[in-house]
């Protein structure tokens, strides 16, 4: 059993560096603004969101049929299809494929699913050299960290941090911090890895049931270099990535990059429908909790997610607490509705890492009701008794007081008097965590009820 | 029970109430028609994506290399009218040093400046991702308005590989600073004929 994720504690650590928090907040807001500009340039944007949502809901409500169709069509194209119930089975299957092909060196492009499954440490422990090739992922891999964002894995780092990491691992000069020069150093380092890799592992943005093929979107070209050069290609895919037909792709591809980074399209949108002669393509279809989420009435729509990251970029909590504070492979609002289903106790604090402002729902390209799902998880977390002790006790007291008007009046009068004389620090007993960075407003002399009695009831305005 | 059966049966029993598949084509017919100048929009979008755009003629293709990349020495061409210096059967280390790769796209997309290139047009799949500079020739008459139209025209599953390419490879993974030439080409030139 892994320790519970304590989001407030991890976030407190993150915000301790105020300047860095502001910088992180601003960097993500900038990406959010680019998304807004891109969305506003497409007059049919809202129609596209509705279509995307409906296509995904349709697919999920017939998912078994689409999975079977996808499998049959992929096999007909010579693609080898594998099924993994959970993370362990996924890792075992991938390792089996690599072992059978005598693979020592693996290049990976971005795959949040393999983060979820813990594939890298599993393979490394078995003697396989695993290199993440997305620049951001390579940076965090060298640092021994997890990605802090699903599209921008190193968004929490400054160029000085990257410079220090590259100096240590790639031998760049200690004072080299220019992003262009650092990228050039990474390019040279990874080129060699691409040219000597025995296999390439990718995720997929979409899997097309009607054709049995997959679509992989990148800006760097790393997935394409890996797939084009290595004799073995393994694609790890969550079962929710299915869409029915190629014509449905247009809807999603138009939404994806605009929502993610504000680009109309990623540089490469690559479609794989088989292997070149002498090559092998494997697809591993992974459940790992997805079928359980599909069966949860209030939560199955979270499986519509196309992993654009827009909900993270807009979230006031994510922007000011950083992706690592969620302790989950997928952070932010979507991570906070997906991960509690995997382990409720461990991720109990995540549904509370939200103001419920609904900004995530407003930007989601597939119209997932993220704020409503966060709210629903809160009720389940509280019902299961996983709330922090102090919070649970406070809520119990509050519900007793609020349910009894007489008690409420007495407690209210006591507090109004007490707050006028209590020193600021002890006021925090009343204001809780919220009061740490804020002062409570001055307590009024009378309650609304008293004011109403004096000014309205006695004034004859009944 | 195999994992396949276990997953399919778990999905079957978890299925939410059926939702209808929307008619994407009917929906698209209600979208506001954009500027009909697809070539103009394509050129603008391609430049925003970081590509150079050259308007030329098919007859001028034999001078293409000296016109767009006179300094290139290691040139691989996937089109007959452009003379290369490297064979398509060259080994990977040679391909990795390519100065220029030339190919012809099937179709262009005005809304995003992308060109669709299936494997048969690439010839050597890795070349288009390894070369320092990639040139894509595209017929002006093969430019469509948006991705809906593009997917209606192309056969995505017709070959084992096909890709939309929009601009040179890029990254912004270090402090959101845009850097052109991440792992792939540092330059992309679109030649419209």
Average pLDDT metric of chain A: 94
The oligomeric state of the chains shown is heterodimer
Helical stretch tally of chain B: 8
Cα distance, first to last residue of chain B? 58 Å
Q: Write the H/E string of chain B, N to C.
A: HHHEHEHEEEHHEEHEEEE
User: Rg of chain A to the nearest angstrom?
Assistant: 26 Å
Strand content of chain B: 15-25%
Strand content of chain A is 5-15%
Order of strands side by side in the largest beta sheet of chain B?
A: 1-11-6-3-2
Largest interface: A-B, 94 and 75 residues
Largest sheet of chain A: 6 strands, parallel
Q: Would you report the number of β strands of chain A? A: 10
Q: Give the N-to-C terminal Cα separation of chain A.
A: 62 Å
Largest sheet of chain B: 5 strands, parallel
Which strand order does the major sheet of chain A show?
A: 1-10-7-4-2-3
Would you give an account of this structure?
- The complex is a heterodimer of chains A (462) and B (193).
- Chain A has 462 residues and is an alpha/beta fold.
- Helix content of chain A is 53%, strand content 10%.
- In chain A, strand 5 (206-208) and strand 6 form a beta hairpin.
- Chain A starts with 6 loop residues before the first helix and ends in a 5-residue tail after the last helix.
- The model of chain A has no long low-confidence stretch (mean pLDDT 94).
- By secondary structure, chain B is of the alpha/beta class.
- In chain B, the strands form three sheets. Chain B has a five-stranded parallel β-sheet with strand order 1-11-6-3-2. Chain B has a four-stranded mixed β-sheet with strand order 7-4-5-8. In chain B, strands 9-10 form a two-stranded antiparallel sheet.
- In chain B, strand 2 (75-77), helix 5 (92-96) and strand 3 (100-104) form a beta-alpha-beta unit.
- The chains are: A alpha/beta (462), B alpha/beta (193).
- At the A-B interface, helix 2, helix 3, helix 4, helix 8 and helix 10 of A face helix 1, helix 2, helix 5, helix 8 and strand 8 of B.
- Strand 9 (268-272) of chain A pairs antiparallel with strand 8 of chain B, so a sheet runs across the interface.
